[in-house]
Amino acid sequence: MSATSVTSGRAARAGRLGGMGRWVAGNGRLILAFIILAVLLAIYIERVPQFGAREQRSVVNQGLALTTTGFGQTVVVLTGGIDLSVGSMVGLTNSVASRITDSESTSRVWLAGIACLAIGAAGGLINGVIVAYGRLQPIIVTLATSSVFSGIALYVRPTPGGAFPFEATQFWTGSMEFRQLPRGMLWLATLVVLWLVFRRTRLATRIIAIGSSEGAAFMSGVNVARTKVAAYTISGMAAGAAGFYLTAQTGNGNALSGVDYTLNSIAAVVLGGASLAGGVGTFMGTIAGSYTIALIPRVLFFYDVSQFYQQLLQGLVLLGSVGLGAIGVLRTRNRLDKV
Amino acid sequence: MPLLSATGIDKRFGGVVALHAADFSCEAGEIHALLGENGAGKSTMIKVLCGVQHPDAGTITCDGAPAPYADPAGAVAAGIVPVFQELSLVPHLTVAQNLVLGREPRNRFGLLDQRRMRRDAAALFAQLGFEGIDPGAEVRHLPLADRQLVEIAKAISRDPRVLILDEATSALNRREVERVFSVIRQLRDQGTAVIFISHRMDEVQELCDRATIFRDGETVGTVVIGETPPGEIVRMMVGRPLQDIFPPRNVDTRPSRPLLEVQHLSWESALRDVSLTVHAGEIVGLSGLEGQGQAELLFALFGVYAGVHGSITLDGAPVGRSGPGAAMHAGLALVPEDRKTQGLVLPMSVRDNVIMATIPDHSRSGFIPPAAERQSSLSMRDRMAIKTASVDAPVRFLSGGNQQKVVIAKWLLTDAKVYLLSDPTRGIDVGAKLEIYQLMRELTAAGKGILFFSTDLTEIVGLCDRALVMYEGSIVRELSGPDLTDANLVEAAVGLTDGGTR
Q: Which residues of B touch A2 (CB under 8 A)?
């Protein structure tokens, strides 16, 4: 009860602002994420000798697989959960896709794409069922399935290899006719539209409801277990899509290709303003977070900083962003709320 | 034939019996009160009726058909709609989204029909007369009173045959309560059964047709309001005359030296210019409606809040403001309202919880000798008569009353001068209550001071030497001696008497 009376002050302040002001006040972390991305992008464009079609393509493509993985991670984090298996799922689907495709047949590319989505959905479904019906902690369930997925990936593709038709790679990662813009932007736009539609489904409302207050959602007749299963399934499917894209991008398969995606996708979601406690977050923020993470090594390269410092800088950006976002907490007058 | 009926309901939680062979039934077109002390089994009965808890034994029928609902959704589908004490709204969704959660309207593309959601919400509020609530606002931005109104509106929007209101009006002001009451009467006249739970006897007298009284998990009886005198109803709730409950007052009640002195204390909008004194050997009560700043006052004194203005001294020395550690060092102890999250570390043992506030006293060069820890916890277990299989058992396995005794034991070890008690007997059994009352007398006999917030008026009257009534963050009245009565407390609490201007 005391916590309520404390927040009412903030609510009153927000109430005095207009609609726009209220949006800004409520989305500080999201705005911050885009400011950080804009600054990095500006530095990069200023440094790079020529920001032509090739550079644009390479920047967009580099962040796309992470953004796709982040889509699913956002959905799971909104429920208040976490998915540590996405990286392994990227590696597994990448391995499977590289087994299906060869350097010639474009029809097999479509088969590989469908296989990646199906395997991703199946893996996510397993995660969801164990989390929701087994009532186990998502962090340990997905850590365990992550090992399983990696194991299967190594069985499917013990050593890196495989091939992908060059024309298909051109199609998925090349430039469009229109002003030679990267086709990756089309995929990015597709993801944004998917998100905007998703946000307006019953499922999305219920996912936020669960993350915000699982008890209240349950008492309102929301099927909590089924909603969680759906969230993890979406996450697995998104990781499968990312695995397919990675195959198109690299032209081969590698069981360990997804290792970085797990923690990077969580970092991207948090950079984008989501709360790991659930209920708060948006894919728009995750896009900004993913591209921030993807740009850091490129910027470092042009500053002649060793790639070894990439992790260090990425960590500092994450700490800085989360720290800035938490400044509001310092103003909280109830010390109990800060703990 | 009753509309909804429960017979012979048994429900246990671990070793605690919440309901034993309890009966309840209500008819269509009546407002039926559930009465009883905290922990008497009212809430458990409600939860059993609407599918949140499953009874260990007994039958439930609705319209003569068996009605054991598997979950709240099943009960809601059958027309049994509860509004709970713990708010069941989702903070990060809007008011309109909350109203339709679980059965959201969709447009022809299968997506949420946002426009219809808002329109329906606005129409519902207009129909109920709940003005000034923005359907597009996120629930976490609403004040508590508005949240309760939204909660009630949400329940009514589900066309209930049985509407259950569990303390659903506790945060509302008089005008809002009137509004809700007229809506409830309208529903009754249309044939809805309304089950009403409130601690305010005046509300029950004003609104309800019949009442069923619970005590210690059993049904005492059902009475018609207006035919049974209120005193008789209270006797049925309590089970014994008042004077037997509270231990006799200490012989020497003449207050000695002042211990805790508070002057012009203010914090945000919750506390306004509060001044008070607690003398050695005195129990000072904090009363008033719920949520008028009583719990906040105790938190402010104990250093939980930053930005508190005013002066706090204990035994003449200023109390540090940097946090609970400083307040503790000065000689204050706080038994918080919410023992499960603020009073105890539930998975840890009784032993660990008992020494939690005195770890430095128990440790030697960074280690805690098991013998010292064990000795303290065993002596506290015996002194407080804590019922536990072992002091090594996790505290979450204890009953509510015994958990509260562990919280109090923790502070007894600190040898504080003034104890701040925030509704310490809420939801615990009668036996444990009596022991806590006895302990409060012992502490004051030993020269300690107690500042005691209770939502139970009989406790304030039966235990306190003086009572301070709070209203909207200020102390509006002080009552002592023969003036300290239920009636005067209620009168002062609603802000109608001198000083209680809005």
A: 270, 295-296, 299
